[in-house]
Structure formats: structure tokens, C-alpha cells
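User: Teach me something about this protein's shape.
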Amino acid sequence: MLACIRRYLLYPFAVSALLLCQDSQQFPGPGTRVIVDAHNCYPYNGRWGDRIERALSVGFPVAIEQDLFWYTDKISGKSRSIVSHGKPIDGTEPLMRDYFFERIRPIMEQALREGNKGDWPLITLNLDFKTDEAGVAATILRIFTLTHYTQC
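Assistant: First, the predicted structure itself:
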């Protein structure tokens, strides 16, 4: 039985993996593209407001993680997606548009003007959804489709 598993499952997989990895240009090797991952790169409880600046100061490429939480204001009843790890929250947490996208806008515009795509993607955005309300997904969809950008 074990011989059958090896012959029919493992060997074809191993051969396929070797064939796929033959082109070294397709798969960067260790050390050819190292990306710093700025995990939880946002202010938290009024502290660490410079996290995005520190992440961007290491150079490019860089990965930046943003945690998204759905917040409903108790007084107005209005809801919005905020950048936060979760409770406790007080409503002063930044919007992703303000904290992340507006901060990287000049960097990306300059990169587009220069046209050097050697290090692209310059910034990899990792999103961590801390709540599952439909509003969070709708906000992200609006941001990435560039519609209603001023409301996100």
C-alpha cells in the first residue's frame, strides 16, 4: 500500500515540483528579495503614531499590515471601518484612507513618474479583518475600486 502511495502520489508531485523550480528567474531564491513586514503598523490606544513612518523608513520593498475593525459611534449611530486591533476603541482611531493611503500616495506617485519597476511592488498591503461585518468589506471594495474614496 505504501509503495502505491509513493508511486502514484508522491513521485508525480516531486517531479512536478522539480520541473516548476527549474526556472530560477520565476522563483526568487533566498536573499534575492527580502521584505520587511511591518506587522500591526498603526497607532494603538493613542500610542505609536509613528509606526508607518518607521516602516517606510527602512526602504523598499516593504510590507505593511493594517488591521480593520468596524466601529459604530454610540451617539450618532454612524458606522465606519477604522484601523485598530480591536477593543477597547474610542472612535479616535484613524481611517485607512487617512492613515495608510494618503501617507503612501506621494511615494507611489513618484514611483509612477519615475517608471522604474525594478523593485515593484514597493509596498505590499496586508489586511487583517478583525470583524466580519459587511461594512468592512464594502469599505475595502470602495477603496480598491476608487469609488467614494473620500468616504472610506
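Now, about its shape. The longest strand covers residues 62-72. The longest helix spans residues 2-21. If you'd like, I can walk through any region in more detail.
User: That's plenty for now, thanks!
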